[in-house]
Amino acid sequence: MANNYFSSVLKSPLLLLHLVLLNQQHVDSASIVKFLPGFDDPLPFELETGYIGVGEQEEVQLFYYFIKSERNPKEDPLLLWLTGGPGCSSISGLLYENGPLALKLDVYNGTLPSLVSTTYSWTKTSSIIYLDQPVGTGFSYTRTQLSKKASDSGEAKQIHKFLEKWLAKHQEFSSNPFYVGGDSYSGMVVPATVQQISKGNYECCNPPINLKGYVLGNPITDFASDYNYRIPYAHGMAMISDELYQSLKRSCKGEYRNVHPRKTECLKFVEEFHKCTNRVCERHILDSCCERKTLNCYTYRFLLTRYWVNDKTVRKALQISKNSIEEWVRCNRSIPYTKDILSSIPYHMNNSINGYRSLIYSGDHDIQVPFLGTQAWIRSLNYSIIDDWRPWMIKDQIAGYTRTYANKMTFATIKGGGHTAEFKPDETSVMFQRWISGQPL
C-alpha cells in the first residue's frame, strides 16, 4: 500500500510539489556558535543563532541571536531586545549597545574587520534574545509573498507568537523573569508587545510567560508630542534665541509638526528654527555630522559592520539560511510597513494598571526624541512620585538623574548620552544592572 502511494506521488508533479511544501513548512533551526570570524579565541559566552517560523504556514522566518547570561542563566532574567527603525537589525543592539562583543574601530583595509570583548554587556546578569523584526529586517525573511504589510500592532502579535515558540523550544527558560526591551522606534512596539503577552497569559492554552516588565531607551512614544518638544529642547540647549523661541510659542501655540499652510507666521518661524538646527546631529547634538567613510566619524562602525556581516565566513558561522537576503543591511528602509500606533501612551497605562515594572531612560543630548517629551508623557499617566528627582551616581560622579513613580516606573537620564545606549554604554549598563536587580539607581 505504501509503495503504491509513493509511486503515485512520484508520477504526479502536483502531489510531489505538495509533499515538498509540507516538508518545508517546519524549518525552525538553531545552532550553537562557538567561534566567530574576526574574534581570535573561542567565544567567552554561549551564543545561539536560529530561525523561528511564525504565521499559518510558518512563512515568516524570524532570525535571532541568543546569548546566555554569564552569571546564572538558570535563574537570571531573560530579555527580548528589539531594535528600532522600523527595519533596523538587532545586531545594532548586540554590537553597539549592550552585547558582549563590539567591532574594533580600525581603518578598513579590505580584510575582515575584527571583534573585541566589551566590559558593559547586559549579559553579565541577563540572558538576551536579539530579534530581527519585522520580516525583511536583518536576516529575517519570508518564504512566500505576504498578503499584508507589517505594522506596529501586527508586530506585537507576531513577536508574541515568536516568543511562545522560542520558549517551547527552550523550556529551561520558561520560569525565568521575562522582560521586553528596545529603543527608538521600539517605543511604539514594545509597550504593545508587553500588553499582547499579558493578554495571552490569560487566554487558553499555552503556558503563561513569566512577564515582569520592560525597558525602553529614548523611545518614540507619541509622534506629535515627541516632535513638539524639540523646540523647547533646542532653546534650552542654546540652539535658538530667546526671541525666536517666544515667537514660536506665540504663533504656533505649541504645535510645530504638520503646521497648517494658512499659519504663515508660524511656518516662517518654524523655518527659522530649521535653519538654526539642520546641521545639528539629531541622535547626539555634540556629534559631528560626517561621511561614514572616515574613521573619526561615529557612523564608521556601521560601514565596518556591513563588511563583517556580509562576509561569507561570518554568514556561515552564524548559520544564515541560503533563502535569506543576498546582502545584509543594518537598516532596511524599504520594508512595507504601516505605522498604526500613533501613540503608545495607552499601552503604557494598561501595562501600569497590570502591575508591570518599567525603566524608561533618555540620553540627554538627543534632540530626535528629547527627554522633555518623554517626561511629559510620563507625567500624563498621573502617577504619584515615590522617589523624587535626584542624581544617580557611579562612584563619585553624576551619571544622570532619576525619578520613580507609584506605577513601578523609573525614569532616568544618561548624562551626555544620545539617542541609543551606544553613546554611553558603560553608564547605561550600570543603570540597567541596578534596575534589573531591584536596586535603586
From TrEMBL:
<keyword id="KW-0964">Secreted</keyword>
<dbReference type="GO" id="GO:0004180">
    <property type="term" value="F:carboxypeptidase activity"/>
</dbReference>
<dbReference type="InterPro" id="IPR001563">
    <property type="entry name" value="Peptidase_S10"/>
</dbReference>
<keyword id="KW-0378">Hydrolase</keyword>
<dbReference type="GO" id="GO:0016752">
    <property type="term" value="F:sinapoyltransferase activity"/>
</dbReference>
<keyword id="KW-1015">Disulfide bond</keyword>
<comment type="similarity">
    <text>Belongs to the peptidase S10 family.</text>
</comment>
<keyword id="KW-0645">Protease</keyword>
<feature type="signal peptide">
    <location>
        <begin position="1"/>
        <end position="29"/>
    </location>
</feature>
<keyword id="KW-0732">Signal</keyword>
<dbReference type="InterPro" id="IPR029058">
    <property type="entry name" value="AB_hydrolase_fold"/>
</dbReference>
<dbReference type="GO" id="GO:0005576">
    <property type="term" value="C:extracellular region"/>
</dbReference>
<keyword id="KW-0121">Carboxypeptidase</keyword>
<keyword id="KW-0325">Glycoprotein</keyword>
<protein>
    <submittedName>
        <fullName>Serine carboxypeptidase-like 3</fullName>
    </submittedName>
</protein>
<dbReference type="GO" id="GO:0006508">
    <property type="term" value="P:proteolysis"/>
</dbReference>
<dbReference type="GO" id="GO:0019748">
    <property type="term" value="P:secondary metabolic process"/>
</dbReference>
<dbReference type="Pfam" id="PF00450">
    <property type="entry name" value="Peptidase_S10"/>
</dbReference>
<comment type="function">
    <text>Probable carboxypeptidase.</text>
</comment>
